Amino acid sequence: MASDITFEVKDSGEITKVEMIDLKKPDEPKTSDKINLPLIASLIIISGISMIGITIIKRKK
Question: Which long-range contacts (CB under 8 A, 24 or more apart) does 33-41 make?
């Protein structure tokens, strides 16, 4: 977001053109900061439940 700039346009009878341009932000490097936490958590939980199930089935045999 651009910072506020104060300027004055005087009533001189002339046509005055004012143009304000924001500079483009530099591209941010893509990192793994935006992870899908619910997906990862559910995969860990499903894996844990599967490992417990396999252990119980092997003990019964």
Answer: none
